[in-house]
Amino acid sequence: MPSALPSEVLEALRRHSTPTICNAIEEFDVRPRSAGFMGPGVRCVFPERAPTVGYAATARIRAGAPHAPAGGPRRADFWDYVLSVPPPRFVVMQDLDPTPLGSYWGEVQASIHRALGCVGVVTDGGVRDVEEVAALGFQMFASCLLVSHAYVHLVDFGQPVRVAGLEVASGDLLHGDRHGVTGVPAEVAPEIDAAARRVAEREQRIFDVCRAHALDLPRLKELLG
Fold first, then answer.
1. Would residue 2 count as lying in a domain?
2. Angle 7-14/189-210 helices, nearest 10 degrees?
3. Please, what's the largest Cα pairwise distance for the chain?
4. CATH code for the domain in which residue 207 is found
5. Cα-based distances in Å from 110 to 5, 19, 130, 178, 224
6. Domain that holds residue 210
7. From CA 197, how far away is CA 52, in angstroms rounded?
8. How far is CA 126 from CA 10, 41, 57, 141, in A?
9. What is the CA radius of gyration of the chain?
10. What pTM was estimated for this model as a whole?
């Protein structure tokens, strides 16, 4: 599991939108531009909130059928694992049902995990109790809303998961806002704030040309050439 970054690095990441973080990561050429972020299968439930940053605590669930007779991992053991991940914690839960059926996440689980130092959950399954969870200040990213638990249960935890196209390992750093969720490579995270500011400065020069009284097309071509 990667080491926790200084708190000031995380705070700097929170000051930027997730698209801006993605733009900044591109500056370092540490991954393909077509990888490292979640696709449209997961949406932000509370888009009005500021960006959420945290370290991944991973798990997999299923709701279409009960536990096997031998049972599965205990939630209490999962909570111990969550506490082993550096704070702030971001639960990442893969739903193994072909189509999401039962919600693991509602007011109860949000309350528990908030008390465990979690800032939110990312799941390709469903969530519920959105008004109650909104009042807790707990962020949720999910594929849908679901009304029932069905047979929802933990299958395992602490292993790599795949959610909306993104492979997430325990302890990975994530950044999410109304636009979606991206992974943040730990090796460049301390430099992202400065890179984001450089990107913003370049974009501002484009905005200035486009918003001028008369368009300076040669200048625009120069900037984007």
1. no
2. 20
3. 73
4. 3.50.30.40
5. 25, 26, 10, 19, 45
6. 7-224
7. 19
8. 28, 11, 18, 9
9. 19
10. 0.93
